[in-house]
């Protein structure tokens, strides 16, 4: 195919597609134009007058539903005015023959019993074969012709009269007379029969049924029954001129003339003057009716559609009337609706309000007390902190003050030892020599106490540092243990050292760990009797080294095992304990171990001995310091200081 012919084919196809598209759009537009939308004609026959709110609410529900489904519905309305006078069916039939003989409707809607009753008389003459939907029918035994029955379907309405009577009996138990106010319409007569059937269920209550068309006649008959009485309102009434009175005015007239509670089961009567009741909603009935209308207008055969019975109602109440007659909200049924309440807060029962206020007052009181307590505790804490700082500062100052004269004493004693060694000083008897030894031992003991106090204050102030280096922990523990052998043998105690491994290099502060071990050994020596044993064991773990110092001494009671690590605390008090000590050593040892990231604990049993357990994490130091190399081997001096409170026997 040549390029020229190819272009012609493409042009022809493009023109064809444009034509088809334009035609489709035009056709769719014509189809949607109101002129071409199918119109449905609906005749609505109302039993009551033009401004009757009940039938208006039903039609509002019908229209709301149908208008969502159909775009073009023409509604025609007829009102029978059955509330104004007794229906003259013959006159109505003549009027309908003149008005509707040549009219064609897609659907007829008959509202209430009177309209269906009239439609039954004229149906075959005027509306034969026209589909009919009836609604709000109260007479379940209503009789219609076979022709109308064949072409009709509808909604039967079950009024909640019995539920409203039961409600009044529950919330106002002191009522003795029930006054039922009805007019003389067909629907009212149906309700009268129902009330007569319910009457037998309440033998202790007087059922007073009043049927009148004039409101003055009703008020006249009710007056005198106000005491222990209640009204149940349904009827539509006329004034003295025969004009129908709207329902709001009727209920206000009864409220002002007759001082008794008013109940109703009719939605239009639920006004400011009425307590409430079990009430049907006209709008809901209309929506349910519209579902039947839709099926018919949509082309479904009426023979396939079944009647519907509506028995759904709401418990509706007027807040002001409940307050007026002192009705408690706790007596109301569940899932009720409250109207005209001034604010959500006022809906809450008084008892609940009082309880809530009481709870709030208690909570506020508790908060205030907690605030006062916290403030007081903060004050005490600040005072304690200030006192602790003063105490720490005092210990630090006094420790340094004591250390100065003590250094002079120790220096003098060292000089005296030099003179004795050189022969420049000779003691004539052993008493002076022993006294000098006692002076030296007590000076060392005092030095130990001062050193511990200084270190404790440094730890509290955060100035105490450990100098870690990579060393063989096994060798350090063994050396410091063996250096104490002489002191142990002097007390006639057997010292046993054992280890699982011979070498484990790890990072720790040699001086501080030795100090901890000497303190634990010192305690074991002091509290282990002659002939006893002290065991020092080392266990190798995956991530930690465990060191135990176990003795066969007097042991520690269970309730005292925690306080031995508290500062300045000992198991025995000052007047009864048989060994010397300040109560600082174990607390300081625990702090030194914890600064290494380890733990120090005790396991003990009275008269069987104690085991102190040190656990140190195995780690390596990245720092290459020579701290240990700068310190001379002063094990002898350490022993002298740490064991200074162990006296010779």
Contiguous helical run count: 19
CATH superfamily of the largest domain: Histidine kinase-like ATPase, C-terminal domain
Second CATH tier, the architecture of the largest domain: 2-Layer Sandwich
What ranges have pLDDT less than 50 throughout 5 or more consecutive residues? Answer: 25-36, 573-578, 625-632
Q: What is the fold's blueprint, element by element?
A:
Blueprint: H1 3-32, E1 40-46, H2 53-69, E2 73-79, H3 89-100, E3 107-111, H4 112-126, E4 132-137, H5 146-150, E5 152-157, H6 161-171, E6 177-182, H7 186-199, E7 206-211, H8 215-222, E8 229-233, H9 247-257, E9 262-263, E10 276-279, H10 282-297, E11 308-310, E12 314-318, H11 319-324, E13 337-339, H12 350-422, H13 430-461, E14 469-472, H14 473-482, H15 485-490, E15 494-499, E16 505-508, H16 510-527, E17 533-540, E18 544-551, H17 585-595, E19 599-605, E20 609-617, H18 627-630, H19 635-642
Parallel strand pairs: 1-2, 1-3, 3-4, 4-5, 5-11, 6-7, 6-8, 8-9, 12-13, 15-17
Antiparallel strand pairs: 10-12, 14-16, 17-18, 18-20, 19-20
